[in-house]
Design goal:
The protein is globular. It is mainly α and 225 residues long. The protein is built from nine helices and no strands. The chain starts with 7 loop residues before the first helix and ends with a helix.
């Protein structure tokens, strides 16, 4: 939803920002065989399946068949959206925060099954923070899942995870024009001042309230607090 009405250069820069739409010719995905748990428990389970998805992608990479990975990924996204919709209906989360959390989750699911070969050195420099952003989200989910498994919460570890999540969600909260302006600025600094393109972690982003709220929701969800 962040690439419509943009330039060709923008399309290059944002090509991995949003997962491709699920073809509508497919029949609706059948419900996952889950125990009758709460919406939050089902959502937490969705965030714990990145390893399973990565294994499915690895198992089928050598076979040239990604259907199993794609099916699992679509099911994960469907289950996640369903859980969020239940919380929205119950008034536990606003639609805006649910959409932001779901966009980041969908990008992470897509990232697990999306491998991009290294760009040749003679190709134009393309700014694309989407893979790093999705990777950071998965890493913080693993940290929070580990915290929950240990049963104890280290304040410093939690603070680092919260800061990383807020930074990541601030990226997903950018509108089309804001994202284009960010990429234009980074590329202009690289071309005009011979400045290195900053890593995603070093990227300066303002943290809007929605990003803070969404980050806190993910933390509470995965740590069970």
């Amino acid at each position: 939803m962040k690439i419509f009405g943009t330039s060709v250069a923008s399309l290059m820069m944002t090509r991995c920002r949003v997962a491709p739409p699920i073809p509508t010719c497919y029949a609706p995905m059948p419900p996952t065989d889950l125990p009758p748990t709460t919406a939050r428990e089902r959502l937490r389970w969705c965030w714990q399946r990145f390893g399973e998805l990565a294994q499915a992608a690895s198992d089928q990479a050598g076979q040239g068949d990604g259907s199993g990975k794609d099916t699992l990924g679509r099911q994960m996204v469907s289950d996640h959206r369903g859980g969020l919709d239940e919380l929205v209906a119950a008034g536990e989360i606003t639609p805006t925060i649910a959409d932001l959390v779901h966009e980041s989750y969908g990008a992470a699911v897509y990232h697990v099954g999306c491998s991009t070969p290294p760009m040749p050195h003679d190709e134009p420099v393309v700014v694309d923070y989407a893979p790093a952003s999705a990777g950071a989200l998965i890493q913080q989910a693993e940290v929070l899942n580990a915290i929950a498994a240990q049963g104890t919460i280290d304040p410093q570890t939690l603070a680092r995870a919260q800061a990383a999540l807020e930074h990541d969600l601030a990226y997903y909260a950018l509108g089309d024009a804001e994202l284009q302006a960010l990429y234009d600025r980074v590329l202009a600094e690289y071309q005009s001042h011979d400045q290195p393109i900053p890593s995603f972690d070093a990227l300066q982003l303002a943290i809007p309230p929605d990003a803070r709220t969404a980050a806190q929701f993910i933390i509470d969800l995965l740590t069970g607090t």
